[in-house]
């Protein structure tokens, strides 16, 4: 099957990586939340052949090359409660069933050629599906999903679970999710970062949860972008030199009060951009300077790049601190001798 190559190397650009600053998305999340809370019983509205005719597009050759079939389906915002009919449309590769009232996606198990799936804004309590061999991009945002079990698609590169009700990440098997490089878990109820042991991961979005610390991410050696905005993080323990690719770290809107915590980021060899706005430590007068003293290779703090003058000053401070530390061990024996002679 050749079309799976169309979605390879799907990467968000830097604007996407900064998208948490967009207030509209927070409002969108709240709207979905209200909708989901208000409506429990929906009038049964199954998918019909007429709806299929309206939503189908993109005529392509089937696998054997001897026939043609429509491979794209968009049936957004139709108040659907049932997509059982999809079991017959086995050639579908791109499916958008967003903004309906679906509680069950099991008919999609028959779509073994599926490349792209969007099921945002439904009533789903699980993202569980059989292993779909070609699925590369899947979005289940703004549902009522409570766990991450049953997601095991070998070519899945991007998984979006933002705006759900997930408390703990479980069941994400690195032996099965061998292609996953972008994981979006913003706006859930996570109280731990454990369970995200996915070595191929490059982009991890964990903003707007209930996290107090970072743990279990030490072996994410390919991670380049980590968003932890709007949590309750007080300590910066949990980062290690094994996170050798991490370049962008967003900790805005947390509870880091001690500037000394920044020393724990010193071992991140490629960290270039750090966002700490709206943390108590940013109220300190020497906050900007102290960050550069602790993390010499930092290029940008919050929204501003460091100037050469700031770099020179930080280097002077580091040298002075180093000299003081070298002198301290010599001073201790002298004081002991003085004490023994008195």
Describe, in plain words, how this protein is organized in 3D.
- By secondary structure, the protein is of the alpha/beta class.
- 20% of the residues lie in helices and 13% in strands.
- It has five helices and 13 strands.
- Strands 1-2-3-4-5-6-7-8-9-10-11-12-13 form a 13-stranded mixed beta sheet.
- The chain is elongated.
- Residues 1-30, 325-342 have a biased composition (Acidic residues).
- This is Leucine rich repeat containing 23.
- Residues 314-324 have a biased composition (Basic and acidic residues).
List descriptors.
disordered N terminus, alpha/beta, leucine-rich repeat, 5 helices
| C-alpha geometry | elongated
- Strand fraction equals 5-15%
Total number of strands: 13
Mean model confidence by pLDDT? 87
Helix content: 10-25%
Distance between the termini: 87 Å
Largest sheet: 13 strands, mixed
In which order are the strands of the major sheet placed?
Answer: 1-2-3-4-5-6-7-8-9-10-11-12-13
The SS-based structural class is alpha/beta
Which parts are unreliable, with pLDDT below 50 for 5 consecutive residues or more? 1-17, 334-342
Task: Give helix and strand order, one letter per element, not per position.
Answer: HHHEEEEEEEEEEEHEEH
| Alpha plus pi helix count | 5
CA radius of gyration is: 25 Å
């Amino acid at each position: 099957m050749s079309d799976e190559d169309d979605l390879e190397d799907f990467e968000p650009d830097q604007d996407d990586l900064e998208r948490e600053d967009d207030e509209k998305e927070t409002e969108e999340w709240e709207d979905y939340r209200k909708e989901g809370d208000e409506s429990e019983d929906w009038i049964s509205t199954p998918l019909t052949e007429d709806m299929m005719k309206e939503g189908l597009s993109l005529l392509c050759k089937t696998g054997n090359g001897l026939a043609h079939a429509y491979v794209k389906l968009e049936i957004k915002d139709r108040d659907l409660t049932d997509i059982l009919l999809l079991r017959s449309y086995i050639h579908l590769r791109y499916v958008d069933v967003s903004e309906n009232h679906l509680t069950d996606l099991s008919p999609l198990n028959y779509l073994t050629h599926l490349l792209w799936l969007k099921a945002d804004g439904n009533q789903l309590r699980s993202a569980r599906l059989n292993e779909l061999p070609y699925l590369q991009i899947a979005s289940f945002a703004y549902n009522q999903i409570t766990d991450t079990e049953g997601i095991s698609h070998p070519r899945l590169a991007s998984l979006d679970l933002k705006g759900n009700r997930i408390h703990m990440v479980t069941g994400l098997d690195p032996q099965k999710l061998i292609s996953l490089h972008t994981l979006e878990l913003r706006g859930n109820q996570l109280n731990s970062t454990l369970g995200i042991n996915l070595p191929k991961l490059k982009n991890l979005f964990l903003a707007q949860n209930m996290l107090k610390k970072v743990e279990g991410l030490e072996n994410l050696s390919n991670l380049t972008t980590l968003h932890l905005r709007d949590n309750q993080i007080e300590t910066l323990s949990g980062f290690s030199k094994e996170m050798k690719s991490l370049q962008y770290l967003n900790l805005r809107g947390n509870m880091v009060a001690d500037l000394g915590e920044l020393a724990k980021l010193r071992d991140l060899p490629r960290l270039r951009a750090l966002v700490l706005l709206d943390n108590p430590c940013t109220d300190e007068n020497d906050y900007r300077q102290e960050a550069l003293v602790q993390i010499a290779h930092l290029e940008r703090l919050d929204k501003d790049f460091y100037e050469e003058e700031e770099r020179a000053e930080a280097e002077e401070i580091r040298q002075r601190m180093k000299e003081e530390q070298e002198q301290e061990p010599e001073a201790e024996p002298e004081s002991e001798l003085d004490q023994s002679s008195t």
